From TrEMBL:
This is Mannosyltransferase. It is a multi-pass membrane protein. One of its GO terms (molecular function) is alpha-1,2-mannosyltransferase activity. One of its GO terms (cellular component) is endoplasmic reticulum membrane. Its EC number is 2.4.1.-. Signal peptide: none annotated. The chain crosses the membrane at residues 12-32, 95-117, 152-171. GO terms for biological process: GPI anchor biosynthetic process. Pfam families: Glyco_transf_22. It comes from Puccinia graminis f. sp. tritici. Pathway: Glycolipid biosynthesis; glycosylphosphatidylinositol-anchor biosynthesis. The lineage of its organism: Eukaryota, Fungi, Dikarya, Basidiomycota, Pucciniomycotina. It is found in: Endoplasmic reticulum membrane. Keywords: Endoplasmic reticulum, Glycosyltransferase, GPI-anchor biosynthesis, Membrane, Transferase, Transmembrane, Transmembrane helix. Belongs to the glycosyltransferase 22 family. PIGZ subfamily.
Amino acid sequence: MQSRKRDTSWKLSYLVAICLRLTIVLTSTSFIHPDEHFQNTEIAIADVFNRSNRQTRTWEWDPLRISDRTIGGGPVRSIVPVWMTSHLGLHVLKLLHNIGMIVSTASLISGTLLLSIQPHQEARFLLPLVFPLTTLCSQSISKSRSSKFRRTFWFAHLMHSAITVVLFGYLHQGGLQSALEVLPPNTETLLSYKTFDIPSSLITSTQLRNVTNLRGATEETLAKTLCEIVSMDEERRIVLLAPRWALSPSLEHRFKLLFSSAIPHLDLDRLDEIFHAGRHRSGIGLYSIHQQNMKASELCH
């Protein structure tokens, strides 16, 4: 298997060398002589990429010498400088390669730098670095002679990807989208508590006029906000979206549960609250707030 890959790499390199040679031959402005032109590429590569200090040069590459003085750096029988027929294209190739390395390195460093200075750092902000890091590591891994090391690396990478998909694709803020899909169409006021801010694109209610995001406020702030809303004379449909584990049982019993997600609503900042709440209250809940009952409760007095 390794010999087959080595043969493929060798054939590809040889094909590139042939194409480069033909390009130089067809675009050259100097005289055409097979030996000099087919030796031209190897010498130019050695000059541009510093491949060898012992490159054998034919007399064609020797500068014109008069007495003890050296005139020019081109071949004796041509007035066209050597760098115009061979070196120029290789210098462009080298420049593009260096630019590619600079862009790759800059994208890696800038991403790490910009994400690291954020005041609220979480693992999900580092996800854009997974692909470039994998690409950079895979190049060195592919050259490693240890097959065990390669297998270990790719196994760890696949496990990391699988865990990340489950964690951030299903558990982290899990059930939020499912709850919004069953939001009553006549909802006019929506409160979200201890969740991410609700994107307006996910809200399907056409009558919704007010969305209040309480984020990580205390339960006292939640109760105060509800009392301010129900104190208005206007009757309206009020719905609360909150993790069930974030509400104390005494407060949750005052609301009518419309929906409870089967998928746990994981908040990495409040793992202790989730574990203490139990399995049946690990999801996110959608609650209907009865305006008159809430107004008459002791919470609003």
